Every structure is written in C-alpha cells, then in structure tokens.
Amino acid sequence: MAVSTAVAVVGAAESDLGATGKSILHLQAQAVTRALADAGLCLADVDGLATAGASRFSAAQVAEYLGIEPAWTDSTFAGGSAFEMYVARAAQAIGAGQCSTVLISHGSDQRSARSRSLAGAAETHTPQAQFETPYGPLFPLSHYAMAAQRYLHVHGARREHLAEIAVAAREWALRNPAAFRYGAGPLTVDEVLAAPMVSSPLTAADCCLVTDGGGAIVLTSLERARDLRPDPVVVLGYGESTTNAGMAAPDDLLRPGSIGSGRRAFAMAGLGPGDVDVAEVYDSFTITVLMTLEGLGFCGPGEAAGFVGGGRIRPGGAFPLNTNGGGLSYCHPGMYGLLLLVEAVRQLRGECGDRQVPGAEVALAHGTGGVFSTHATVLLGVDR
Amino acid sequence: MTIPADEITAPWWEATRRGSLLLQRCGACRRAQHYPRALCAACGSTDLTWTESAGRGVVDSFTVVHRSPFPEPQAPYVVARVRLAEGPVLLTNLVGAAPDDWRCDEPVRLTWRPVGDGRRLPVFEKE
C-alpha cells in the first residue's frame, strides 16, 4: 500500500536551542514563523495543526497563541514519537480533504525552567504508581538501563559498543553550529565509560541532553508543494507501534516496537533498509539506537554492536546516522521527535553544509517515546 | 509516600500484610497475570481468580540506581525485572547482596519490605 495522496514537507525550522531563557509558546512561535517563511507561506494558509507538550489542551493553546482556527488538529500524546505519528495523521487528513496545509510544532523550555526530574511525572491513578514507582526506578532511564543490561548479557556486547553511539553523535555535532556540544571537542569511549554512573550500565554520557528547543515543519499536497519555492520532500511511508506503558509489561526487552513500525513504513514506501541514505534515529540513550537499528532491520538481532563500529556511523562512514549530533550532543527538548524530521528534511534538500550526506535521496526518521512504549517511523524522499 | 490502591488491586495489597504474593489466574486461558486487572490481558476474559505465587523466579534484567530523586530506597539500590515461575514479570528490588553482585538469569526468591502502613512490597533475594 502506498501513501494514497502524495504529501510533502515544504517548510522546516528550529527555534532557538539550548539554554534560551524563553517560554514554551515563544519557542513555538519562533519555530512556526521560521518554518512558514522557509515554505513561503503565512499563518493564514495554515488550516491544520499538530502539537504536544504546550499544555493539557496543546492544540487549542498553540492555535490561540498563533491566532488561527484550524479545521483539523492532533495532540496525540506519545512522547518522543508523537511527531512522527503526526506526519502520518497529517498525510491522511490532507488526503481526505479535511485540511490542506498542516503545521507540526513543538517547543520546550525544560532546561531554563529546570522542569525535568529523574523521577518522571507522577500519575497516581496508574498501575505503575502502585506496582513500579515504589521500587524507585528512574523514569524513563531505568527501563533503558535494564534493556541495556539484558542486551549486554544476551549478546555478549560491551559498554564500549554503547559508548560508540555517543562518540559518533559528538563527531557529527562538531560539524553542526546549532549543536549544544558544537564547541565541546571530541568525546572518547573512555570518557563515556568514566562518566558518572546513573542507572547501570548507563552513565550520564549515555543519556541525552536536557535542553530547551523546538521546531516546526509544514506539510501540504505534493501537487501544491511543486508550486512553492523549496524543493518538496515527499512522505514515502510511515508506520507505528505502541507496546507498553510500564517497565514490567514487555515480555522480551529485546523485541522493541520498532520491528513493527519499521516493517509497516518500509512496506508502504515499497523500500527496504538498504535504500536509506541517511537515518535520524531517536537517541534518548545509547541503547535506544542499538536496539532501534536492529528493530528497523538495518542489521540482525545482536548485530548492532558490531554494525556501528569501524566508523560506519561517524561522518564519512557508510551509514550516516544522527547527522545533527542527535539528542546526545545537539539538542534534546522535552520531546526530540520533531527535530529528527527537521534534520531529515534538510539532508534531503542538501542544506547541511559540513555535515551534508552527499546525494541523499531517502531519509528515515524514527521516534521512540516513553519506556520503549511508542515507536513511529517515517520515510522521506526527494521529489523524483 | 502512601502507595495508592483501587477496588481491583485492594485484595492484592491486603494479601501482602500476611506475606502472600497474589497473581490473577484466568479461567478461560489459564494464564497468570500481574498486575491485577479487571480483565485478562491475554484473552479478554473477565473470569479471574486469585492464586498465590510460590515466590520463585529469575532475574530478567536489573539496574543499579546510583542517583535517585526518591526518599526511599537509599541509593545505590537495585531495580529489577523478575520473571516468576508462574510466568508474569514484576518490577521489584533485589536485596541482600551488594548492588554489583547480580547477574541476569540468576534464580531468586521472594522476601518482603514493609512500607510503613502494614502493607509490604514483594522484593527478591538470592536463591
């Protein structure tokens, strides 16, 4: 099954990133106005809005702030993968004629507001509040740490293999002036291993940044996109999978939902892992990337530790991965999923300067939310 | 911190006072489940009865928490997934050994930690 009505991304932008001192809605407004300017469109053209994290009624909140009354909204709350899910919903809404121009946006002030806690958010009515929280797991870190521990045990991998993900991300960040760690210099495997242990086997250097940040993308029909200034970036396929809310629920920690989301996205696009020129894979933690690469079929179970070695995922390597520096070294606002899409779009347009992947025609963006809970894969391509 | 309970889970929590770890057993598919629910998550049946776990299992995975925002337990402590012999996986703590002295797949047995109001939390120690 192919995407029924061809839909394209026609605008993409970041807000200010890092430690901004700006509010959530200010960052949203920055990202939105920049993405619309990139597309050559204005707010009056927007009749669809998808966003999360602004408030309980996120779409209403952001729509009011922007001064628009959209005919279609989505505020599906799925953590980091929500924005990849919005691409799917937006393509369907445009295809069904419910709206014509969709804005997908996010903004987070979590570093300036010091709103991030190792405990996560408390929801006392959930089963996890009764049967998991009393044991003191860090949320979401301890779940990924247990997945990593099991991964190392079953596959005979070492912490050095996890560390390579952070080291490669830093190499890419050194080529991205917008990255939080742009001027920080290279990171070594030994430095990752020697960083303070937080939830074993993951150290602070295995964990993504905590920064402010935001972004926005604009989608419309491919037909209309061809009349706009930027080169259209076509939505080739998408797929998702939602697997669990708590840490005890998955029967097998090493079978993530990316197996299902990737299979569905590739089937829709009529492509396979070998067709991907550049991959933007949510790196909340180093283990997230190893397991997602396996889930998406870039390598077999237990093979990611070897796959990422030998410089393959670093600049100049055969498998360009997380080319903006990722959540580990570029930016990680409350939910990073939108910035995966922004980088994928820019790579396909050839706008990435020192970090540009030459001739990139197919890009993959994969979001992961919660405790390996929600998974969404989007395949994007140049207009042929 | 008072651990919440609800109308479905209250019998499970009451049983912890007498040192009994309950599971739900489905009358239709015979699967055991944890945590207690209003239906069987394997087949959808609402024919559920309580059964007592023998308290034996293996460590599926674990993590040593070195930096914690919680008042209890005191870091470093071990958070783990334990797979009971009856099938279900529980989130729990591993106790009675040094935090760095645990391995995946090692056998463990049930013990209890009081939570201050007469109820107790099932935790696990080395077999």
From TrEMBL, chain A:
GO MF, one term, reads:
acyltransferase activity, transferring groups other than amino-acyl groups
What positions does the domain Thiolase C-terminal occupy?
239-381
Specify the superkingdom. Bacteria
Question: Which SUPFAM superfamilies did the record assign?
Answer: Thiolase-like
The residues the entry assigns to the signal sequence are none
Q: Quote the NCBIfam families the UniProt record gives.
A: PRK06158.1
Name the PANTHER family for this protein.
ACETYL-COA C-ACETYLTRANSFERASE, NON-SPECIFIC LIPID-TRANSFER PROTEIN-LIKE 2
Its protein name is Thiolase
- Species whose genome carries this gene: Planobispora longispora
| Lineage, broadest ranks | Bacteria, Bacillati, Actinomycetota, Actinomycetes, Streptosporangiales
Automatic annotation (TrEMBL), chain B:
Where would I find the ChsH2 rubredoxin-like zinc ribbon domain in this sequence? 13-48
Q: Which Gene3D superfamilies match?
A: 6.10.30.10
Q: Which domain of life is it from?
A: Bacteria
Name the source organism.
Answer: Planobispora longispora
Query: Matching InterPro entries, A to Z?
Result: ChsH2_C (IPR002878), ChsH2_Znr (IPR022002), NA-bd_OB-fold (IPR012340), Thioester_dehydratase-like (IPR052513)
Q: What is the recorded name of this protein?
A: Uncharacterized protein
Domain ChsH2 C-terminal OB-fold as annotated: residue spans: 50-113
